[in-house]
Design brief:
heterodimer, A: mainly beta, four-stranded antiparallel beta sheet, 0% helix, B: mainly beta
């Protein structure tokens, strides 16, 4: 069964802390994405990557950075967490050869910043 | 600006009835549309997609209708079951879509099933 695994389901951090959210996929997918999900706002794209060491800004990249050193792993970094970054974070992947918009999502990481 | 939105944030349906979830989009340049289902505690799952050169596509118990004239998308679920309880998102991508393109999600509709 194909799988996208997010390292932490729940995290509580303090304002100013550096936060790492890790995502690993086992499908050999080229594309990986980080979204945040907030009530009433749907899913908003933070960053995506279509190859190792490549990254593209999404719609809300401010306050975030990403790292893709290996094909299977895509990390989201909050350099200095703030309370407005309290949210559900969803990682997804897709095949570069796909002709559909099928993203495979992880179960999410719920981050609370105090 | 562009938006992908929904007519109703919540929908309650009797078990066994058909469900219709609606979605409006405003970007006339969008040419590929997708429906995702998100069950509680899980990430979204792909249900069905449709390209702008089609107006209807059917899957297993689901049908997506696209009306480009009024920029409207709907998802029909036949014989709704308790397992269909979830939040449903419509999503769009701009013309010239590729697998690495940005997919813009709507805010979602919660479907609840009455026994």
């Amino acid at each position: 069964d194909v799988k996208v695994t997010q390292s932490s389901r729940y995290l509580v951090k303090r304002t100013g802390e550096k936060v790492f959210l890790e995502c690993v996929q086992d499908m050999d997918h080229e594309n990986m994405f980080w979204y945040r999900q907030d009530p009433g706002l749907g899913l908003r794209l933070i960053y995506f990557s279509y190859d190792v060491k490549m990254k593209e800004k999404g719609d809300i990249p401010e306050g975030y950075s990403v790292s893709r050193e290996k094909k299977e792993r895509f990390s989201l970094i909050l350099e200095s967490a703030s309370t407005n970054q309290t949210s559900m974070y969803l990682c997804a992947s897709s095949s570069g050869g796909s002709d559909t918009g099928e993203l495979f999502f992880g179960e999410g990481s719920r981050l609370t910043v105090l | 600006g562009e938006s992908v939105g929904l007519h109703l944030p919540t929908l309650s349906v009797q078990e066994g009835d058909n469900s219709i979830i609606n979605c409006a989009y405003s970007n006339s340049a969008s040419d590929y549309f997708i429906w995702y289902k998100q069950e509680s505690g899980k990430g979204p799952q792909f249900i069905i997609d449709i390209r702008s050169n089609m107006d209807k596509r059917q899957g297993q118990r689901v049908t997506v209708l696209l009306n480009k004239t009024v920029k409207h998308l709907s998802l029909q679920i036949a014989a709704t079951q308790p397992g269909d309880s979830a939040v449903y998102f419509c999503a769009e991508t701009p013309r010239g879509w590729s697998s690495a393109s940005k997919i813009i999600f709507g805010s979602g509709t919660r479907l609840s099933i009455r026994p």
